[in-house]
């Protein structure tokens, strides 16, 4: 599976014990019902490789996972620090007016008065706040996701309309 066919749901923090288990940091998008997840995809060299789950125990924002055929600490160490994904087609659609962080990368951002600002290159987390990272004439422009800045998101046209306060672009 190609990298673009999946969405990130966490990453492997470290091996856990001597029987091939790993401790995983889970993103908020990881499905709450762990019974539904039978396979996770691990990113190796820009490819998503399937790993079948033998056992999984979720503990808040972390999980301990035992994959089939990972039977010792050496096998667990081989996947240490790698990202884990699920197929994008299994992710529930985002609600109207909301979005998944990776869903809007590449969207064109326009301001009511300044016109086209650039494209979204990523979403940054600053504590509880999220910021749109936009390539604005070769410079990074950060726009808060919360608050009055974003007026509309058109997923079909891949466009985001914002209303920035006077002087915002000069900061």
Kindly describe this structure.
The protein is mainly β and 171 residues long. The protein is built from 1 helix and 12 strands. The strands form 2 sheets. It has a 6-stranded antiparallel β-barrel with strand order 1-2-5-4-3-6. A 6-stranded mixed β-sheet has the order 10-9-8-7-12-11, with no helix packed on it. A hairpin with a 2-residue loop joins strand 3 (39-44) and strand 4 (47-59). The longest helix is centred in the middle third of the chain and has 6 residues, at 73-78. The radius of gyration is 19 Å and the shape is elongated. The mean pLDDT is 89.
What's a quick, concise take on this entry?
It is built from 1 helix and 12 strands. By secondary structure, it is mainly β.
Q: What is this structure's SSE topology?
A:
Blueprint: E1 6-16, E2 21-26, E3 39-44, E4 47-59, E5 62-67, H1 73-78, E6 83-87, E7 108-111, E8 115-126, E9 129-136, E10 139-144, E11 150-154, E12 159-162
Parallel strand pairs: 7-12
Antiparallel strand pairs: 1-2, 1-6, 2-5, 3-4, 3-6, 4-5, 7-8, 8-9, 9-10, 11-12
């Amino acid at each position: 599976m190609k990298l673009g066919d999946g969405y990130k749901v966490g990453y492997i923090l470290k091996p856990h014990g001597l029987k091939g288990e790993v401790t995983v940091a889970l993103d908020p998008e990881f499905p709450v019902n762990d019974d539904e997840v039978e396979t996770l995809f691990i990113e190796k060299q820009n490819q998503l490789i399937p790993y079948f789950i033998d056992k999984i125990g979720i503990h808040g924002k972390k999980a301990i996972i035992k994959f089939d055929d990972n039977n010792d600490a050496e096998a667990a160490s081989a996947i240490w620090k790698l990202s884990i994904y699920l197929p994008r087609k299994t992710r529930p659609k985002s609600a109207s007016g909301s979005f998944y962080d990776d869903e809007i990368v590449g969207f064109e951002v326009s301001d009511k008065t300044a016109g086209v600002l650039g494209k979204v290159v990523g979403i940054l987390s600053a504590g509880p706040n999220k910021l749109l990272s936009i390539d604005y004439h070769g410079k990074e422009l950060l726009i808060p996701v919360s608050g009055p800045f974003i007026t509309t998101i058109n997923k079909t046209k891949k466009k985001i309309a914002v209303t920035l306060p006077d002087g915002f672009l000069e900061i």
